[in-house]
Amino acid sequence: MKTGVYFCNCGTNISDRIDSEKVRERLESSGLMSYFTTCPFLCSEEGKQFLEQDLLAQQPDRIVIAACSPREHESTFMRVMGQAGMNPFLMQMVNIREQIAWVTTDPDKALRKTALAIKAALKRVQLHEILEKQELEASPAVLVIGAGPAGLRAALSLAEAGRKVTLVEKSPVIGGLPVMFEDLFPNMECGPCMLEPLMGEILHGEQSPNIEILTMAQVDGVAGYFGNFVVKVRQRPRYVDSHQCIGCGECFEPCPVSGPNSYNCGLDEKKAIAFTFMGALPNAPYIDPALCTRFTQGSDCTLCSAACPMGEGVVAYDDQEQILERQVGAIIIATGATLYDCTRLPNLGYGRLAGVRTSFELERLLASNGPTGGQLLRADTEPPASVVFIHCVGSLDDDHQPYCSGICCQYAFKYNHLLESRLPDAKIHHLYREIVSPGKEEYALHQAARHNPHATFTRYGAISDLTVTDEGGRQQVRLSDGAAIDADLVVLCPAVVPNADAGRLGELLDVSLDRFGFFEELHGRMDSSRSKLRGIYLAGACQAPADIQRATNQAMAASGFILSELVEGRKIELDPLFASVYPERCSGCKVCQKVCPYGATSFDDENNVSLVNAVLCHGCGTCVAACPLGAIKANHFTNDMILAEIEGVLK
Amino acid sequence: MSIPTEQANAASPMAAEFEPRIIGFLCNWCSYAGADKAGSSQSPYPPNVNTVKVMCTGRIDPEFILQAFKMGADGVIVLACHPGDCHYKEGNLRAAQRYAMLTRILKQMGIARERCRFDYVSAGEGDKYVQVITDMVETVRHLGPLTL
User: What pTM was computed for the model?
Assistant: First the structure.
């Protein structure tokens, strides 16, 4: 085997400490080296040209490059090897600059260490194998889970790039939470108005043929991997043909039954056939089988269908649940978040006292399409004279959620602003643990609240110091120093927490959750819109508490990643550093499945052997070390290669 | 059965001249980068550790460490990413588990536990790398050559 050593002097960075001639002398007796060449600057243009020409002239079987850190120029030299027609994996690099020349003061010791390190590389490189990048066909289509601002933004952007998008939404409407908020911080912009152009474009715009919207649907199964996911979607029946329905609402009136309206937090009632709220998109009602007598009592009521001006068949009582299968190359999770359960803080009286509401309930109470048409009234129909906002409920608290949710101060000040005009005489009290209001626009609402003569601000130490009680039909909020505030309305601003079904979805997709239950990002700062599983991306509050700006930015980041990583018409290149199983050695113990952090190992029941999926494998080698029978091979990091390197140093 | 334990032989006249041979397993993402960082800040440290790069410390089969001792290493050091920083989520924690298991085997073989060290060095911790390597070399120098 012809093996060459290329020794780079790196100007004088290496040659100042290590004399290449002496290294050559020491290695000559090893019998492992066919030739030794010293170069002044191997990474320079001249150096690279020299290397290419020399490789073509020498035609070595293997090479060792002793130079800087492989983190610096390994890929540079691998490219040169490729240009010279040599497989780039037939090289081993030795870091004699960062790890020897720059840190060893005694030249004799530096020389000895260098010779050992190159000898180890020479032993190792003999065992290197030709590795080729594999290519796989991939579907350019994308599945987006969740039709809130993040999911909508991603779906439209990907469709504009010509991608087929399937948008799965569990509720009957698109738009997420902000579509139910009539005033948004920081500019008091109307939520539905802000989202309408985006939703309109998705439903009826030029790109709408590229976007399939599946409302009342959830992902029920995922198989495959980046480029080739097969997703099972379960869609509940709507009982209304949304393509034929014109959304006139004539069917509501004759419907004989009604029940609590969950979209208004149960604060009012809705008919068994209804819109989720006025203005909801898609503009078609749905039948709630938990209310409709056809389903609850087996009646043959057809009053809604009879009232439909579009005729029979638009209300479709025989609509069935559907299981749909879609092939996609990438998946974006944009399932949003929810609010902390305030009943876990019993001292605040939520669920027990009529005047204690969550911020979300206040949002609906203030909405013109809400349960009171936007009127804020006490039980005795008088407007509230005193409103207390309790900030940081369940946030910044090790007994609940230790983090700051980041959005609550903003909406509390938004309410402050709204109440100023709607209840000009009402006293407003803000009880807070911390006030957080960063951003170039966000200060305005905060300042307005501070300058409101009716508003007071009081800092509390811990949420457990506060007690809310009922005092003759009004609420009283007591602080730790004994001070008490009478309140007609107490509004809790709860922590933003992961959705209850995040765990289920995480398991289905094999995407890990962080310690709070949010979907875990690949890297908190550099890669927050990619999950740790290749091909699955994150956008919005499913990854961390987020406002609309952050959510849509992340959606664009995820879309950008997809457009650059899953290019239409281009195959997916696989890094050859993956693991593979020697089936004849595998005993089927499945230890590899327990240790793989990426779900890349699976089990072939028929042949009783484990398999490693090269697309999902990240090449860490944890399974290789865990396998009790040595039945898994890590490309380029085989046991033999590593042991040869150790032997080269020691023997 | 009593387990033979090594006695430090610093008192022997050889100890001062003894140059330990140590294998250092570094992961590609954190500790190898930490070693490079020590290099770019040109902080000198003893040259007794020859490094073997692996993609992740989770790749390190305890057998590699036993083989290193068998082939004549006086010490072995494994440097991983800090908990929570692993490029592959949790390979460093697997390595820590395996290390805990291995120390029991080493004890049974009569190899002083100080000869095999596990620590965490991040990509930014060039200073820590220098300190950990220096400390390891001096510890093993103090113990003297390993005879199996």
Answer: 0.78
